[in-house]
Amino acid sequence: MNVTAIHAKKELVKTELMTTHAFVTLVTMELIVNMNRQKMDLIMNLAENTTSIMDKNPHQISDIDECQSNPCMDGNCINNVNSYKCLCNPGYNGTHCEYVGILYGFK
Q: Any S-S bridges, and between which cysteines (predicted)?
């Protein structure tokens, strides 16, 4: 092969690599757009359900304060409608902040 043929082959391979990279980038972007669209649909669905709950007569909605019993051993309790979430103090983890140590889950 002469130098011109080698250079032409090199340019062809370079063009194919760039085309492949562009295709992969395009597919990745499409996946991101689809994932964002799914997230937006979920958010809209949640918003619609929340609105329908809020539109009801307040006397029809009954909720108790799940944090009243202090379920979070080493953290703060956040009360939600029919649920709660424990925000654990540093160094504690678990559903009720019952574990000491991040990696090993020691009690």
A: 67-77, 88-97
